[in-house]
Amino acid sequence: MAKFNLFSEESNKSPLARFWKKFKTNHPALVGLWLFIALVLLAVSAPLLAPYGVNQQHSDALLLPPSWHDAGDVRFLLGTDDLGRDVLSRLMNGATYTFGLSVVAALITTVIGVLVGTFAGISRGIRSSFLNHLLDITLSIPSLLLAIIIIAILGPGLMNTVWAIILALLPQFIHSVRNLIVEELSKDYITAFKLDGASNWHILARGIFPNIYEHIVVIFTMALSTAILDISALGFLKLGAQPPTTEWGAILAENLGLIYLAPWTVGLPGVLLFLAVLSTNLVGDGLRQVLKERKAD
């Protein structure tokens, strides 16, 4: 009887509660989630928490190493650059550009990708064939190269970079959502919906989306990881954010000549980029693992 009660209690939990119970057993994914949340909070609150202005110069503190170094200064926890600007303040502010704008780009991509991918999945005939061929052509081009082509048309700049990333990520997102829709449409429960006279909207809202929203979250994490790398790469190539903007890739490019003289000005933004991509990948891997276990069950 006790076993039956436990089983009943487990079955009465919401899908989200069961999902979280499985997800939190994956410790690397859980660490990635907390790191991801910390980066989101940093991106939102950086202008309020930064100890100095991002372009505030301290002429008496040029190229100071981090404070734990013998030559460091406690006023500048992560040191200063060649213009006497506080590295910590610039990196905190850069989270808003690199990580924050990547999240915005991935969210916009998700909304557009779900809408267009759904349309592509339920379309038939010439429209479906045209969309499939268009997706095949665009998917043959790497996202970064596609973003560079778009930047060449729009011109360099931070906002143009965001739009370029969105347009570069869309083909893969649309393709993934379309495949999910097509896979669901072939299942027996969809046939039952159609036999009951359900409309396409009812089938999508009540049947398909409740079964694929977790997959869409996984695709979102993959898109976010790619967006972070592409925005930083464009900034590093001086095609995206322009100095003195504190985007992490632009900071790397700006301080590249100081790599031997002041390695912290290059290493620290590189570490933050690594952590941002690592956190999204860990969360994405954790989500994929939970989905695999649910399919096995």
UniProtKB/TrEMBL annotation:
Location, primary (coarse class): membrane
Transmembrane residue ranges: 28-50, 97-122, 134-155, 216-237, 257-284
InterPro entries: BP-dependent_transpt_permease, MetI-like, MetI-like_sf, OppC_N
PROSITE patterns: ABC_TM1
Bilayer disposition of the protein: Multi-pass membrane protein
UniProt KW Transmembrane keyword: yes
Transport recorded as keyword: yes
Annotated compartments: Cell inner membrane; Cell membrane
Domain ABC transmembrane type-1: 95-284
Pfam families assigned to the protein according to its UniProt record, in alphabetical order: BPD_transp_1, OppC_N
Record keywords, A-Z: Cell inner membrane, Cell membrane, Membrane, Transmembrane, Transmembrane helix, Transport
Family: Belongs to the binding-protein-dependent transport system permease family. OppBC subfamily.
Protein name: ABC transporter permease subunit
Organism: Pseudoalteromonas shioyasakiensis
